[in-house]
Amino acid sequence: MGGFKIDSLMGWWMHIQWLHPWILAALALIPWLWYVHATRSKSTRITIKAPALQHIPVRRSWRVSLYQYSSYLVFPALVFLILALARPQYILREEKVNAEGIDIFMVMDLSSSMLSQDFEPNRLEVSKDVAMEFIQERRYDRIGIVAFAGEGFTQCPLTVDHTILNLLMNELQCGFLEDGTAIGMGLATAVNRLKDDSLTKSKVIILITDGVNNAGDISPELAAELAKTYGIKIYSIGVGTRGEAYSPIGRNYRGDYIFGMAPVNIDEELLSRISTQTGGKYYRATNKERLKEIYNEIDQLEKTKVEVRTYKRYSEEYAWFVWMAVILLFLQFAIRYSLNPLAA
Fold this sequence. Notes:
Blueprint: H1 2-14, E1 16-18, H2 29-43, H3 62-69, H4 74-85, E2 88-100, E3 102-109, H5 123-137, E4 142-148, E5 152-159, H6 162-170, H7 183-194, E6 202-209, H8 220-229, E7 232-239, E8 244-251, E9 257-263, H9 268-277, E10 281-285, H10 288-301, E11 305-316, H11 318-338
Helix pairs in contact: 4-11, 5-6, 5-10, 7-8, 8-9
């Protein structure tokens, strides 16, 4: 609890500014005044020399000590008065953000080949992790998720709630849908979600896949034509190493995947064509580091326009310092006139 109060006090102090900061220079006089006062007190102290009193025990009353040192209370009082004269002000900030966001749909391949282990632990988990990092950086954009295998479905509609997005992205698993790679269905599902939205001018699809279109009723070319018609850009990312990878090649009697070495086949020509057709771009990610670089490039290409206007308001805080000085001076007065040992 004490740590919390100290942190709160430090946070409050960090928001203080001084209207007349030059007055704070007077604080440098306080140590000198303290020294002058202490020296003068010693020089004016009355002593009485008397013989044969060395064996008499000296008893120092708490009233005498309190009375003697009460004069020093004037120095912290002076400190508070100087701080008050410097006019401390607590800064209250208000920010108004005008953002022209971008609508983005992440279209994720959930075919069984996304479990290939040329990425650690596999292509799907790495693709999800990097996509979630990308989502966290797009504070003002509405983002949705479409998943596809043998068919496509909307995992999450457009939203600015990135917590929900990450939760739903993390839930994506292979085996939810009939196996296959219906790239056209995944794209068409995203286009259908984006086409009627008039809130934003910029609309983007980021397609992540590792295979060749082999399922679905809508071809990737037709989906790309629809995207172009509605002004939607497609950025395609082919995920997978070159050559062969340790991949699912079948299932056993329990339904578990059987793994073996299999060639990596990504239809790069198709992905490049549909991306170029819509004003986007095709990328190939052969490892996690390259996938991050691709997302960073897309992030730079599709920047959100944000206008931040900041308003400042101030709260006068000098009264607290004045009251502290008054309390200290009153305390000194009370001690000197109520605990005067000579009057006891």
